[in-house]
Write a structure and sequence with these properties.
By secondary structure, the protein is α/β, with parallel strands linked by helices. It contains 14 helices and 18 strands. Strands 1, 2, 4, 5, 6, 7 and 15 form a seven-stranded mixed β-sheet that branches. Strands 10-16-17-3-18 form a five-stranded parallel β-sheet, covered by helices on one side.
């Protein structure tokens, strides 16, 4: 089981030019503060740094556009993660960038899963099995004040993208279906999907083969090429000659069409130029002014005989060019018609080939030989393709069966029974400790159950469930052990005795080696161990005094992310 531990949190708002940093005890940290002092905003930021957003964020906090930096360890190895908006960066303890990316459901999900060896695969609503966002990896460890004390498995935003995530997540984290199960499941589903694609190709190949074979004569005899040896050589020569002539004519036609296009364009340009020259001459002839001002460049031109005569000369040259170009165009079009006639004359050569194909030797025509050979080649190609597809399907069948066997090995009924018995025993023990008499074993029989208590008993029943599950994880799961974050558990007007009981229970029943971060308004006389962080200024979690230091810690990391 990998161990994730939080060491230090940095929060920085460039907009407000305020910041805050807090350090966490490796065993227990209590964040103590009245409502509206930013206690929950601080707590919500921890897993949010990893892309696991809470279901609700205070509008004022959202407007502050706070960047989050968390120092943490995985199995004792130090890392840092920086989040600014939807951009993330992971660094080592020397502040060297290891990875950067954006897109929580894609890049971030894959990277966090890799970092924490989190191999759960969930089926999205499009039927695809994908690595879910980091929230699904942290679900057992975070209880949000806004929704986590009302129902189980709901403390992060966006969980509804997977229809049956609760049972899959619970089975995964409890060790009923560990990493290896989901890795095998992903392999099986990938193999099955690829296998179906190959089978679609096989069905299409069979349909094509049936269409090709449907119109065959069905005549069965030995088509011996040596019987038509000489005629086959003549047929091949005729076909090669026909192909050579066709290619020559096609090249000629291509060149002629290119010339024709050029000439047509030149004629169009010359016609436009002649029209402009005629218009200019007509304008000068009718103009009474001694000077004419160019409407485009503003230059003054003399309206004299020389200029008029120049225009007449240019127009005559243009007419001469037009006549020559049109004459050339006529010649090219005549050549095109001649080449088309040559192309049409290939019919004679085709008829000779048909005659060769109809020659007989006994009951066999050369056409039958050619057709039979082409059909044999087609059948051979289809058989080869089918064999290749069958081979791929066979490999995928083996991979799918192997993955299914691996999955089955982790669905051992005895193993499952042992885990569920442990969970139910812990649940019963913790319900007694927290004074929740109304729940029976039927109410929490399933490990992914919904707690149906009401009133002030509900938060205590949920706390019992969360800790029973965490202890089960500690005992049987091979997944990640993350910091346990409880945000304001004293919900639903707990009386003084039950409030103290919940705080004491939360502090004293952390699974062995676990880390607890507890947010509460007060401790109700319970002795606090570890670190105490107090938030005592209404609406002022961040402060200007820490801005320079926190901004200085983040600045070199931002530069690497932007490089």
């Amino acid at each position: 089981m990998k161990s994730l531990r939080f060491q230090k949190l940095y929060l920085c708002s460039e907009l407000e030019r305020k910041a805050k940093s807090v350090e966490f005890d490796p065993r227990a940290t209590v964040i103590l503060g009245e409502n509206d002092t930013g206690k929950s905003s601080l707590i919500k930021s921890l897993y949010a740094a990893f892309g696991a957003d809470p279901p609700k964020v205070h509008p004022t906090w959202a407007r502050a556009n706070v960047s989050i930096l968390v120092d943490f360890t995985v199995d004792g190895i130090g890392h840092r993660i920086l989040r600014s908006g939807e951009f993330f960066g992971i660094f080592n303890t020397s502040d060297q960038l290891i990875w950067k990316g954006s897109g929580i459901s894609t890049d971030v999900a894959t990277q966090i899963a890799k970092l924490l060896d989190f191999k759960l695969q969930l089926q999205n609503r499009q039927g695809e099995f994908v690595t879910p966002s980091p929230a699904y990896g942290f679900l057992p460890f975070y209880v949000d004040q806004d929704i986590g004390w009302q129902k189980t498995w709901s403390s992060f935003a966006g969980l509804g993208q997977f229809e049956k995530y609760k049972s899959d997540a619970a089975y995964f984290h409890a060790g009923l279906r560990p990493n290896e199960y989901y890795a095998a499941k992903a392999e099986k589903l990938t193999a099955d999907k690829a296998k179906e694609e190959y089978r679609v190709e096989l069905r299409a190949l069979d349909r094509a083969a049936k269409r090709l074979q449907a119109n065959r004569s069905g005549l069965k005899f030995d088509l011996r090429p040596e019987v038509f040896g000489e005629r086959l050589e003549v047929l091949l020569a005729r076909c090669q000659a026909l192909q050579t002539e066709q290619e020559k004519v096609q090249r000629n036609l291509t060149e002629l069409h290119s010339k024709r296009a050029i000439l047509v364009e030149q004629i169009q340009v010359a016609s436009n130029a002649l029209a402009e020259l005629d218009a200019d001459y007509d304008f000068l002839r009718k103009a009474a002014d001694i000077e004419v001002i160019c409407p485009t460049c503003g230059t003054a031109h003399d309206n004299d005989f020389a200029n008029k005569f120049g225009l007449i000369g240019d127009a005559d040259l243009c007419r001469g060019f037009l006549l020559e170009a049109k004459d050339d165009l006529g010649g090219v079009e005549a050549s095109i018609r001649q080449q088309r006639t040559v192309f049409d004359d290939f019919g004679g050569q085709v008829a000779e080939i048909q005659a060769l194909l109809d020659e007989q030797r006994g009951d066999v025509k050369l056409r039958d030989l050619v057709q039979g050979e082409s059909e044999r080649l087609v059948d051979s190609a289809i058989t080869t393709e089918r064999a290749a597809l069958d081979a791929e399907v066979g490999k995928l069948d083996a991979a799918s069966d192997e993955a299914a066997a691996t999955m089955k090995s982790f669905d051992d009924p005895a193993h499952k029974k042992k885990i569920l018995a442990f969970y139910r025993e812990k649940m019963a023990e913790f319900l007694v400790a927290l004074r929740v008499p109304g729940l029976t074993d039927k109410d929490y029989n399933r490990i992914d159950c919904s707690i149906s208590e009401t009133g002030s008993d509900l938060p205590r029943a949920l706390l019992a469930y969360y800790y029973a599950f965490l202890h089960t994880m500690r005992e049987y799961s091979g997944g990640v052990a993350g910091p346990i974050i409880l945000d304001s558990p004293l919900q639903q007007d707990q009386d003084a005795d039950n409030a103290a009981r919940m705080i004491e229970f939360a502090l004293k029943n952390v699974p062995a080696g676990g880390q607890l971060i507890l947010g509460t308004v007060e401790l109700h006389g319970v002795a606090q161990t570890g670190r105490l962080i107090e938030t005592n200024k209404p609406y002022q979690l961040l402060n200007a005094d820490e801005y320079d230091a926190v901004r200085g810690a983040m600045a070199p990391l931002f530069r690497q992310m932007l490089a």
